[in-house]
Amino acid sequence: MEYITFALGKGRLAKKTLELFEQIGITCEEMKDKDSRKLIFVNEELKLKFFLSKGPDVPTYVEYGAADIGIVGKDTILEEGRKLFEVMDLGFGKCRMCVCGPQTAQEVLKHHEHIRVATKYPNIAKDYFHNKKHQTVEIIKLNGSIELAPIVGLSEVIVDIVETGSTLKENGLVVLEEVCPLSARMVVNQVSMKMENERISKIIRDLKEKL
Ligand code: PRP
Questions:
Q1: Protein residues whose CB sits closer than 6 Å to any atom of ligand 1
Q2: Which of 13, 69, 116, 148 is most deeply packed, by most CB within 10 A?
Q3: In this predicted model, which residue has the larger pLDDT, 14 or 74?
Q4: What is the pLDDT of residues 70-80, one digit of tens each?
Q5: What's the 65 CA to ligand 1 centre distance in angstroms?
Q6: Whether 179 contacts 97, CB under 8 Å
Q7: Going by CA atoms, what residue is nearest to atom 19 of ligand 1?
């Protein structure tokens, strides 16, 4: 039997994913050791492998077949635009992709003025403003702490993830428009879905029963 390999994005989603997998009898004890610097973990009995990567790299591993299955946020799936099957919503990691800024930016948005949009998600932002709103904007790519941009005058608005809303609130910003809802998704390599259909379908069925 071949191994089925899972790519998990490091961080919050990985922890929740492992908890969910435990409920369907898929465990990987080795992976729970927080001090370990190991990158790949094996469950010999079930012929499964797991590895942790940076979230945005998960769709890349899955498209190329280096991983058969990936667990990743919908934001990353949309941003990366890789060829893969999105097979299921895992229901956790719920949040929203939003256009945010100071309340005063609402006017600018309404009147379609040329605005600067800072974001970690340039493709999502481009698609939203250019294709859905038919609005010309300048996208400025940042790598984190996006809320800083309108505060220090780098941009009028941002496109970013809002979960509890506390980061916005503590920085005097508000949600101006909602782009789309987000949550953790399971993605599968297109060839693996055919070659390992039975085993992968069983994992999906078992997980669906627990949700
Ligand atoms: C994310 C996101 C927001 C914040 C939203 O940032 O970019 O800044 O969480 O959460 P909240 O609505 O519950 O406050 P993350 O913590 O991933 O760090 P980053 O700024 O480096 O992107």
A1: 120, 144-147, 160-167
A2: 69
A3: 74
A4: 999 999 999 99
A5: 30
A6: yes
A7: 144
Alpha carbon separation from 44 to 21, 29, 49, 66, 199 (Å, rounded): 16, 12, 8, 18, 15
Spell out the domains of the chain, with CATH numbers in brackets: 4-93+183-210 (3.40.190.10), 95-182 (3.40.190.10)
Round the CA-based radius of gyration of the chain to a whole number and report it.
19
* Nearest-atom index, ligand 1, CA of 145: 20
Task: Write out the two tokens for 42.
Answer: 């094996």
Backbone region of residue 102 per phi and psi (left: phi > 0; alpha: psi in -120 to 50; beta: other values): beta
126 CA from centroid of ligand 1 (Å): 20
Measured between alpha carbons, how far is residue 51 from residues 40, 46, 57, 69, 187 in Å? Answer: 4, 15, 12, 11, 15
Burial of 164 (0-12, 13-18, 19+ CB in 10 A): exposed
pLDDT at 56 over 80: yes
* 65 Rama class: left (phi>0) / alpha (psi -120 to 50) / beta: left
Pairing of strands 4-9, 95-101: unpaired
Residue nearest to atom 17 of ligand 1 (CA): 144
SS3 at position 89: strand
